[in-house]
Design brief:
By secondary structure, the chain is mainly α. The chain has a domain of 112 residues. The chain is built from 22 helices and three strands.
Amino acid sequence: MTAARPRFALASLLASVALSASAFASPAPGAAQALKQIIEEQWAADLKADPLLATASGEPGYNDRLPDASAAAQEREARADGEFLARLRRIDRAALTPGDALNRDLLEFVLQHRVALAPYREYRIPIVSDEGFHVEMTQMADGVPMRSVRDYQDYLKRLEGIPAYFRDNLANMRAGLKDGFTLPAEILPGVKAVIDAQQWPSAEASPFYAPFRRMPETLSAADRERLSAAARTTITNAVLPAYAELKRFMAEEYVPGARHTVGARDLPDGARYYAARVRYFTNLDVTPDEVHEIGLKEVARIRAEMDEVIRSSGFQGDFAAFLNFLRTDPQFYAKTPEELLKDAAYIAKQIDGKLPGYFGRLPRLPYSVEPVPADIAPNFTGGRYVPPPVGGTRGGQYWVNTYALEKRPLYVLPSLTLHEAVPGHHLQGALAQELENVPPFRRELYPHAFGEGWGLYSEKLGVEMGMYKTPYEHFGRLTYEMWRACRLVVDTGMHAKGWSRQQALDYLADHTALSLHEVRTEVDRYIAWPGQALAYKMGELKILELRARATRELGERFDLRAFHDAVLDNGGVPLPILERQIDAYIARVKAERPHAGLPAVP
């Protein structure tokens, strides 16, 4: 999974033709100018509404501010989204160039789902199981260039704004308590544990002070001392009390008042809410029941492959015994955090060396292998990709969870690395940042079914790349695929069919070799984030379908590198646009004269 920037991590249904961003013809000036104006105004509105997005996008003009999280601001932004969408739909799409038509379709894709979900006032739940406004604050300076006195003053202003930002979020959560729109009480112990870990004993012990430890020598000694002193005062008097108040609120108000149901269907207007989120995260006009059935079929198919791997390993015992063996044998677990991180880094470098055989274009931006921050690690997934801020001081980050090493099996590490680093989220996201001649919002766009589907597809691509060396690593890859297939079953089971949390825990534990700790953190994540877990397998199935189509249609002219480049050509796109993008690629190759070139990867 990638830590996507939320205002553009959307999915949609579109019936539009997507061509390469470089395909332009003579425009109709009126339509093109109207589109340009809407795109610029809408992007400016988003930067103003979300200063953290602005910073991450390389726009420094809002670096001294935090978002206005108040209900009034949320409602105001929702009205603006509706107005932008209405203006956008008045533009004659047929009068646009292919490149402008794609820009229009992608902005419509962003806005139409904001408008569709706005009535549910999701801002009343600003925390999920392992993320939220309280975690976002601790990472807001990570990789952001801070070279001048002004940069540090801007950051101090943000720190000063944390109490008001927290008050607005707590007010929204209180509204959720009143309305019955809360996280389930059953998953709150894990959420509360993260907040409890964020009660730092001093300013210097908090992550907020980190930028003041690495102040450049170009600043005078007097400025460094003055700014550091101001940071200690602000963190002590403003930031730490805000986190203390959040802890008190969770213990005294939220946990006692949270709902005692699990599924989204039990929220106000919950059935329609969950159905909208299913469409949102899958990009497809499918129902929860249809997704559930797809999941059951995938579970049966993958289980047959898993049984074959067990037989090939020579293990004497049934499926349950093999899972217990994988979960308990010390050979499958690192003894130190450094060992786990080194193994992940070694796998990542092996993959790096193979990439030119599978991709025609590779990104310039590097990435690192890092541990998950200690305060969030206990309730966090096994790994994640964290994209860099545009123009920042670091590359992408592949996070590996080193908490509870006995729960982090090495046999899944190749799959995790392929998904979160390369050729998964880092490669895809870094190429998107390098898009040229596109509006800025395009570089931030992350439809979940596309991004997470690509990550899961990358795990399967690892078979062709020779990244699974032992039967256990092959089983680990199948465990990860089974995990994503089970998500289709348990997410729809809990949120549409009335499954309990325990049913979901048992189903995931019985079908995968995930550690039982990770089974819990994953199920709690699905409960807190309805529908998101559906994106992975649904997106992967579409990409595999399109690859099979291209292979069949092009025959000997199929080149895997060219296919991958075509998938990633326009950055993040919803699945219907991706399908049209690949159909255009197939037609383009068919129209070309055969020519000698590099052989396709078999």
